[in-house]
Amino acid sequence: MTNDIAIVFAVMTLAIILFTTDKLRTDLVAILIMLVLPWTGVISVREAFSGLSSNAVVSVMAVMVLGYGIERSGAMNPMADKIVKKAGKDGRVIMAMITATVGVISSFMQNIGAVALFLPAVKKISKETRLNPKKVLIPLGYGGILGGTITMVASGPLIILNDLLREGGYDAYGLFSVSPVGLALLISGILYFYFLYEKVLPDTKIEETKARKIPDIYDLPKEIHEFVVPKGSELIGSSIEELQLWRRFKIHFLAVSDSGSIVYVPWRQTRFSEGQSVAILGREGNIQCFFKQFGLEKLDRPKVFKDLEDEEKAGFAEIILPPGSSIKDKMLEEIAVRKNFKVEPIFYMDTDGETFEFIEKPLEPGMKVIVFGRWQDIRTLKESKDFIVISEVKPPIDEIDDKKRMWSLGVLVLSIVLIMMGFPLPLSFFSGAFVMVMLNIVPKEELYKAIDWKTVFLLAGLIPLGVAFEKTGAAKLLADLTVEMVWGWNSYLILLVIGVIASLFSLFMSNVAATVLLVPLVMIMANGFGIDPRGAALLVAVCASNSFVIPTHQVNAYIMGPGGYNTKDYIRAGGGLSILFLFVATTVIYLLYL
Fold first, then answer.
1. Residue from 463, 467, 254, 443 nearest 345 by CA
2. pLDDT tens across 336-350, in order?
3. How far is 383 from 378, CA to CA, in rounded Å?
4. Alpha-carbon dihedral of residues 366, 372, 376, 379, nearest 10 degrees?
5. Which of 158, 300, 351, 384 is the most buried (most CB within 10 A)?
6. Does pTM top 0.90 for this prediction?
7. Are the C-beta atoms of residues 273 and 266 closer than 8 Å to each other?
8. Contact of 425 with 416, CB cutoff 8 Å
9. Cβ proximity of 517 and 154 under 8 Å
C-alpha cells in the first residue's frame, strides 16, 4: 500500500465519521475533503475543484431550477389532488403511492428528473394532509433510484453496461432484460417503508414556522372550519351584523363562496343564502355552540377554502397604528377594515398591554391588532400609511396559469427527450432551465434562489474523493483483495461480495465510474470462478445504484435541502434498505441469470 492510498483511506474514514456524527455540516465536510486531498498531494488542484464543473453537479443545479419552475407553475397540482383523494390522510398509503409512481416513471427517464417532477406534488400533499415532508421525500428519492433499475436506459451504470459487455465480447442486454430485478427491488423498497414507516423514517412532528407562531403567542384559535348553509336554515336572509354572531359566539367569518364566486373576509352586512360555503375561525367550544344553534354540519377539512390553510397564501399578521395614522380616534365600524382591506381583526392590545378579543372604543396610536387574511391583502394593508405591519409577510405567489403549467411540463419533457436522443445530461437539463427562465416560469430574479448551494458543494466536494480513489489505485487494491478473499467460495456468496464492493464504490465515487472500473475485473473473475460473466456484470451495474446510506447520490443530495435531512436520517432510512437491496438483487440475478 502506497502513502497516497493510505491518505485516501484516511480521508474516506474521516469523511464517514464526520458524516455519521454530524459534527460538521455535510457540505463543509465535502469542502474539507476538496481541500485536504490537494494539500496532501494526492490529486492536483484542478482535479480537486473539478467537481464544480462536473456533469453531476451541473445537472443537479439545472434540475433544481426545473423543479422550482414546475412547483411555481403548479403543474403537478392535479396529480397531487388525485393522490390525496385516493389515499386520504394515511401517510403510509400516500408514501407507497408516490414511491410506486415515481419508480415506474423513473424507469424510462433519468431518476433525478422523475424526482424533480414529483417534488412539488409531495410538498402540496404534505401541506394539505399535514404530513411531514420528511416522511415522504426520502421514499420519493429512493423510489426514483430503485425505478432506475427497471430498464436498461434509466440509469448511467446500466446504460454503460452494454458497451462494456460488447467490448468484452459478450452479448448486450435488451431493454427489459433487467426488469425482473428492478421490479423486485422497487416492490421490496415500497414494502420496506410501508411496514417500517414509523421506525426508519424521521419523526412526524412538524416544526412551526415563524408565521404560525403568532396564534401560539397570543393563544388564538388556529383551525379553520367550513360549512354549507343548508336549506331552511335560520341564517338565510340575515346578515352577520343582524344576527350578532360575533357577540354571541365570538367567531370570525373568513370567506363566503356563492355560486363559485368567493368573497374573502365578508363585510358585516353580508347576507347568508342557501348553498353558500362559509369559512370561519374560532375556539372549538364556540364553534360547536354555533353549529348546534343553527343545525349546521362541519366538514372534516376545508374543501372550497383550502387556500386559507396554506401558510404560503394566508396567515396571521401583527399591525400597529402609527402616531400619524388618519384613522386614530375612530371606531372600528367607521374604518370598515373588512370591507376596505379584506382582513379579519382577531385580537387587540392597547398601549397599556391590556388585551381584547372585541373592541368598542376608538383606536389609538400604538395599539396592536392581530389580523388574519391572505398575504396579498395583508401586503395591501402594509402599503397603507395608516398601518405598520411588523410581522413577516409572505412574498407573492403567482396565480396558477394553465399555460405555464403546460409549458413547464413541456420543457421538462423536452429536456428528457434530448437526453434519450443521446445529448449530454447537463446540456439538456441546463438548456431546459434556461428556457424556463426565458418563458418567465422561473423569474430571473429568483434563478439563484432556486438552487440549493449547500447541495451543490456537497456533491462537488465528494467528486474529488472518487477521483483520488481511482487515481491512487485504492479502488483496484480493494477489488484485487476481494478476488483473493472469495477464492473457492460458493457462487451465491461470491455474487454477494461483488454486490457489496459495487455498493461501497458507489458511495464514494460516481456510480458510472464504479461500473466502468469493476465490470471488466468482475467478468475476468467470474470466468475464473465458473460464473456467467454477464450475470456478474449485471449485478455490478445494478448494485452501483445501491446508494442510500449517505447523501452522495445526486438524488439523495437533491432532496436533502427540501426535506431538511441530516446524514443520520439517511443512515436510519437507508441502512436496512441497502442490505435488503443487496440480497434481493443478488438472489434474483443468481436465480434468473446464472
1. 254
2. 778 788 888 888 887
3. 9
4. 10
5. 158
6. no
7. no
8. no
9. no
